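User: Predict structure, ligand flavin mononucleotide.
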Amino acid sequence: MATVYIDGNRHDADAKQNMLHVSLSLGYDLPFFCWHPAMGSIGACRQCAVKQFKDEKDTKGRLVMACLTPALEDTRISIADQEAQEFRAAIIEGLMLHHPHDCPVCDEGGECHLQDMTYLTGHAYRRYRFQKRTYRNQFLGPFVNHEMNRCIQCYRCVRFYRGYAGEHDLNSFSIHHTVYFGRHEDGILESEFSGNLAEVCPTGVFTDRTLGQHYTRKWDQTYAPSICHSCGVGCNISPGQRDGIVRRILNRYNHEVNGYFICDRGRFSYEYVNSPERIRAPLVRRGDEREVIEKDEAVKIFAEMLGSGEDVIGIGSPRASLEANFALRALVGADRFFSGFSTGEQRLIELMLSIMQTVHVPSLREVEACDAVLILGEDVTNVAARMALALRQSARREPQKKALAARVPLWDDLGVRQVTGDAIGPVFIAFPCATRLDDVAEATYRGRPDQIAQFGYAVAAAIHSGAPPANTDASAQALVKRIAEALRTAERPLVVSGATLRNEAIIGAAANIVYALEREGRSAGLAFTMPEANTCGLGLMRARALEEALESRVQYGTVVILENDLYRRATAAIVDEFLARAGNVVVLDQVNTRTAARANLVLPVASFAESAGTLVNFESRAQRFFPVLPPSDVQESWRWITDVATRRGEFGSWNSLDDVTAAVEQEMPIFRGITAAAPPSSYRIAGEKIPRQPHRYSGRTATLVNISIHEPPPPDDPDSPLAYSMEGYTYKAPASALPFLWAPGWNSARALLKFQEEINGPLRGGPVGIRLIRGDRRGAPEFFSGAPEPVNAPERRWLAVPIYHLFGSDELTHWAPAISSLAPQPYVAVNERAGFRDGAPVAFQSDGATQTAVIKIRSEIPDGVAAVPAGLRETETLRLPAWISIEAI
Amino acid sequence: MPSQPSEHEVRVLSRRFGLPNSASIDTYLANDGYRALEKALKEMTPDSILEELKVSNLRGRGGAGFPTGMKWSFVPRQSPKPKYIVCNADESEPGTCKDRLLMEYDPHQLIEGILIAGIVVGSHQGYIYVRGEYRYLIDILDRALEEAYARGYLGKNILGSGFDFDLYTHTGAGAYECGEESALLESLEGKRGIPRIRPPFPAVAGLYASPTVLNNVETFSSVPPIIVNGGKWYAELGTPRNGGTRLFVLSGHVKRPGVYELPMGTPLRKLIYDVGGGIIGDKKLKAVIPGGSSTPVLTADAIDTPLDFDSVAKAGSMLGSGAVIVMHEDTCIVRAALRIMQFYAHESCGWCIPCREGTNWLKKTLTRFHSGGGREEDIGLIEDLAKNMLGRTFCPLGDAAAMPTIAFVQKFRNEFEMHLAGQPCPFEKHGQLVGA
Ligand SMILES: Cc1cc2nc3c(=O)[nH]c(=O)nc-3n(C[C@H](O)[C@H](O)[C@H](O)COP(=O)(O)O)c2cc1C
Ligand code: SF4
Ligand code: SF4
Ligand code: FES
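Assistant: Predicted complex:
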């Protein structure tokens, strides 16, 4: 702590910070461009200039950049100083020489940091009497639009893209007043975090290209606090909609989870909500035809199909909310409720969950703070992209210690990078093929899944002699020792693993490493990726495994399938047989999946944008999401189920989400606390619900006049404390129910700083999510016993392992045009020693079925391994890993 | 060819200029070459060398005039990382062309100076970062390096002393800003030539985040004579706190422009009239830029200023890179201000707003102003834009653009006002800025 003076006011400040950070945290309005709370200071824009005084007696002072001024004891600055104000206005004037002033046609208009800063400095009239500079724009792919003329050269984009997200195909070019930010040539941006450019850029150079296709101003959109449904990280998002069309997704800051950034799958996944392939009305199969029916009739048919309930089973879904799964479980009974995980997956997930009880599972904020990392058998970028971005920051921790030792504060981004150079910390990755994090890995290990498991066991044994030994090949021994040493000597060691390779021993090995560290007196973190939005929540329900139902040979009367395409969970032969065996198939889903196409009754289910519910992320954080679209013919699964149960006179008291959430909590102790994840629907601020619409929302009285000149009342929303209205207060809203950010003078995403307790700190207003597993069964858990002996590959056979693709493997984004345009075509990747030519068409056999693909040569893949993309649209699901043969065709 | 020597010169660094094959190692060895190295390795310690340097009052010849001995003493003795010596041969300040001669006619003197720096700080690797337009000098330097390696003055176990040193040339990236020491280091690492922040200073975290000594060509070239003849001898050549001689680059409206080695403290009058033979056409002197284009202009009444760092500073300017640009009475000052601003607008690296936008705006304003399109308020605007750069930009290039501009407006406001008639420049016949 230090005492500092700002415009004569005395404040306590964090001496590890700079004066811009301190001033903004204290609520002063000081303009800035190049500084970013997650990326620190570079002193380029000179917009944050203030007057600094040496001491009490100094009245002259000198201009300094607040972002480069450490908040040391007795630092004295003035923001209001005349000369400082004039200089700040002059900076804006400089930017306005070439800025095109095309706000009315600019997608950034109304949420532009440049507009806000211009207004804040008071600059209004520029003395420039010459032509403006113009640039050529580039095509950068389906996500991000480029309009270089608007650039103010603050370098934020390249600092994020290169320095923070670690990708290289965006750079600054040229010098003097023609500095250019773009690619070396037109082309699709390679970073999976490119969408953040739209929020990082303070003006309209990089904007959301998908928003541009159905553009609506920030203030004209309706927002809701939501949770990304595209993977198990659980990033907080704010979708915006108007006229029933979801327009875009914005990052919603949660300092424990996603902070300031989300991945492109999360940001652009929303497009599927608007897809014409959505199921919008109930469908019943009559003969070969499917007929659209009324909602009431659908409920009636559903009730009939349930009959006495005796031979009814329900299949849940890791992409549906806790409430939806729980409602189905309540409808069919716990012993008739099957999880809906893929074959072989459930065992792994339950194993991971039981290990999580015995270790510390870090939040992403904690992951970023780790200084030594082993990623064992996981391709984090493609399974849990936001976690990969956090791990990229972990790789900088060890080098940063050198900067601190050289007395360079961590906010001094240039200084830190000068001291650390390109150094990376001890991050190690063991995976069969190259991953997108390899560039920050000190070393990598390639092997088959069973070898990776052995490798992990060996690391554990090298850390603590009591851990079961393992057989790793001699060549890996040195690396094993190096990793063991790095983890043992780190301040905050971390192990990351997951179920991607479908290998139990890998998960056991990851646990053993952490247990070994704990026995050595080190406290270590263990994070498992979770592939789907509610994998963790569904796993905690401990339902029966889907394969039990699929392979049981029982003749079920009715099978109720909740938001799940079984054809993605098991091989087509098995699912075909299963569905044929069932008397009735009822599918509740959002899009017309292959399973839905086989159903006797299909009920249209609300997407994340139309529903409320609770998801549990990879760290067991329960988080609530709320609908952004008003009620329509589609409704939440749990509401369909409640409707049918009510009709049958069962669990009659569920009227709103709060009732279902409370029931989950009551019935299943593991979920204790989830009701507190967000305020109940009865929550009010000054008697009003929290508005979903900014107070400048326009056209309220006009949008529906073609139907009726009487303005309808806003739709009712019994499930949330939010209103489809512009009336009420967001400023004091609880953090978990904050639909959008706006503060006077701060129209851009930077309004966030008015909602944080301090810069980079938690949001004011309560918790954001409730941790369910606290690792309290810690102590010295038993080691997992040794890994199975490695297997030898049969002649001309390859062990096929699944490879995930951020763009392509997620089910619902198959219906999102921008994302699906980037999905790969089916392939089989092997090394050149396999004897195939790159691009050669091949057929491969697995589970008796033959599939075709093309060969991709990736030389890093070990002999005897074939990497096969998982979950692509219109490809058959394989039970992996499996030994396959590959034939040229 | 170097300029015709002048009788007033005191030739220390330039004494081999003009010898046949002056760049060859044989000529060098026949004229005291590598004696300093031998002495440094065999008779001296890093501390005693440093002491001589401090006594010599040698100050950096790149522009800022920082005491060289002190700079070298900042490098930590112990370092887990390699240490580097970097020679700034990016010479691009308008008016300056002295390093070029030192490299062309006496490359071994430079190599020897760099080697001594290596001995002092315990470095075993160095780079000479040569201005891109000096491509032909790289060939000369490379030949000299080859010779030095062949004769055992570079490489392993130099002169049997156990001291190893490798030295490389590196092509500049074609930007003036790459001569600014931190941008130079970025460029040398293969990055964009934008400046770094200080602290950390190069002595602690320079090239590849390692301790680095960075000096100008002339600074390094001054070291061997100091070691051979002693710091005291060198200091006494100059004035107090301004040791030795330096290469002055005389250009503009003088009869004998050229590069002349003179003691520090030589009066401006002597340089212009005795060494340079006076003003072309015996016209009246109007103004002098004393230290390269980035230094504030002096008016004719400063003619008796001694040319050392401190005296020129007292006169309100800077000795900078030692490039003296002389302008006679027919010179259009607005045109001079414009020409200089054209340079800075082109060379601004584009990192910070006041310089990036200010220089370009100033260039456009001065262009229009000079051709008769100026408005009265433009004079204030020019001054205002320059003042918004002064001390407020990220690196000193902003100051370099601002300082001369402010001085031109303040000292020659009348000439600016003369351009307000709506007519093209009133100086019908422009004096050519010879060599600038
Ligand atoms: C914009 C700018 C350009 C510079 N260009 C050069 C140059 O071309 N050559 C040079 O030696 N120093 C140049 N300098 C000075 C260097 O930054 C540095 O101070 C000098 O090389 C240090 O060497 P010295 O101590 O031997 O003078 C420049 C400085 C600035 C701000
Ligand atoms: S494109 Fe945007 S973020 Fe990048 S430098 Fe320009 S204004 Fe800044
Ligand atoms: S003053 Fe700013 S823009 Fe100009 S060269 Fe230095 S850093 Fe670059
Ligand atoms: S925010 Fe401080 S210089 Fe840009």
